[in-house]
Amino acid sequence: MIKRSLLTACTFGALLIGCKDQAVPEFSHSELRPGGATTLKRLNTRTFIHPSENLDLDRQLDFWDGFSFFRDPWVAAPAATQDRDGLGPLYNARSCKACHIRGGRGKLVGEGTHSPMALLFRLGKGDDGDAVDKHYGGQFQPFAIKLAKPESLAAEGKVTIRYETISGQYADGTPYTLSKPNYQLVDLAYGALQPNTVLSPRYAPALYGMGLLDAISEHDLIAQEDIADKNNDGISAKYNRVMSAKTKKQVIGRFGFKASQPSLASQTAAAFVNDIGITNPFFTHDTCTPSQPLCQLASAMGGHDRTLEIPEKLHKLTVFMGAHVAVQPTRKLTSEKAQQGRALFYQANCHSCHTPSYTTASDYPLKELANQTIWPYTNLALHDMGEALADGKAEGLANGREWRTPPLWGLGLQEKVQGYQAFLHDGRAKTVAEAILWHGGEAEQSKSAFVAFDQQQRDALIYFLKQI
């Protein structure tokens, strides 16, 4: 059954780019358990928050202890609950859960003026990857803690979102529409943005499988780098190089939409300080700017200018939980339709950026995640995605057109688990097809292949993506 469906799909693909150019690898039964031994044994569509299947009972207790710091809201300091205080002074959300609902992506707001949580905005200066806005720093924060009167700490402002419609059609004449978002920061409390400040929207990602991505050997990632496109396939994988906040050494980035964080621990720490205002072992100071004296005062009043708001031990528990959020098993991946879509995925050269599989490092310190055969469909590298998705903001070595390749595993479960779905860095795509159609730059050839497919082929490819 599988071999026959592969041949059928290959025949279709040959009409476009030729089967001999992109060999379709033999199907492996390891694809059915994309997280290896960590994969959940049974599908669960209520939540993504499950510990890795191979955690023993003691380690599961650590997972659920860490989960409490993900789930529970933080409060302003000083407070009686010292393990849970330190919120803000300026922030995007009061808890991790507020942005990563059920361990997945957050719920987006629609058109209008909002104080969003799951959609945040990084601020920068075009090609200067280290620059931030003079008044608002590196991230816009629409909420503020309340201070005792007569002082009043103002949130930084709100966001107005408007959409414009872009129309197009597939090669077979079937029409489609895309919604292009336009963002504007309004009700600004600390003066106008600097003239060359650019906005980079970021929509909270799903959490499952993060530890497995952290466990991929750096050697295996660097082996895929091809900045000068020496193999002439039109793909120029590039890894961000960033400074570790702890070791002060330059390492490759693998987390964040522009791969600006080198590890899951540092990504978690960056989210704590930027999104919730919680100082930690990686980032020891609140993000108040010189234009925000009341923010600085509130930070000092909380008493956490002398101690960390989440100390090393509790931060490690939170990272442990995040590392062991299990990947769900695949669904109907062995069906004929999914196998045809799998062949088309390779024929369209999607795998050149969305690398299907790795074996995680055998010496990774979290033993349950080590030496696992995994199927995340990402190379974690930066790629030029074209002008339509460009934000104009550099981040380390990432320029304003480059984004890190996101993993695809579990993509088809968003709507089942959360009741809604949205894709890409700012959630603009409401379907998988829309996400593909936004691809440009290095992905233009693969998008063109998708556009050239007939309806049956497009359906098969999307069906495959929803099963992995």
From TrEMBL:
User: What region holds the Cytochrome c domain?
Assistant: 336-468
Among the Pfam families in the record, one is: DHOR
What keywords are annotated for this sequence in UniProt? Heme, Iron, Metal-binding
PANTHER family noted in UniProt: CYTOCHROME C DOMAIN-CONTAINING PROTEIN, CYTOCHROME C PEROXIDASE-RELATED
Protein name listed in UniProt: Di-heme oxidoredictase family protein
